[in-house]
Structure formats: C-alpha cells, structure tokens
User: Which sequence fits this backbone?
C-alpha cells in the first residue's frame, strides 16, 4: 500500500476492505479497480489504491486529504 506508515508529519494507517475486493475477484471474477483507503489516524484523509505499477500522485491543487485529488503515476523503480 503506497504511503503505508508514512505521512506529512504523522503516520498513515490505511484501512480498506481488501478482503472483500479479493473475494469478489476470486468468487465472482470481478477484478478490483481503484480502491480507496481511509486513514485510521485521520478519518478525513483518504488515498486511492491503484493497480501496480500505479502510485497515487497529488494533482497539486485541491484538498490533499481527498482521494479524488490524486492520479495514478507509474512507479519508477
């Protein structure tokens, strides 16, 4: 999970229903798309979880705690 354990001055502890997403994929063939993770330490902060190699990159405007203000950027290794 991108950013897990990191944040701007405080830890990011993501909470997303990953088990349900996996269950729907395995049992129903419905592959997960972008999931949204809420921060357990700050419930108003959310981040999108993109399919690898996508990494959430902030647009540069709008509320940085809103997952809608991010886009998928390829992870450079």
Assistant:
């Amino acid at each position: 999970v991108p950013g897990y354990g990191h944040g701007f001055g405080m830890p990011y502890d993501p909470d997303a229903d990953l088990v349900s997403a996996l269950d729907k994929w395995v049992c129903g063939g419905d592959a997960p798309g972008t999931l949204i993770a809420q921060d357990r330490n700050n419930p108003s902060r959310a981040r999108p979880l993109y399919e690898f190699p996508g990494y959430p990159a902030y647009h540069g405007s709008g509320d940085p705690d809103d997952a809608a203000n991010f886009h998928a950027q390829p992870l450079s290794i």
Summary: The beta strands are 14-15, 35-39, 46-49, 54-58, 70-74. DSSP finds one helix and five strands in the chain. The first strand starts at residue 14 and ends at 15.
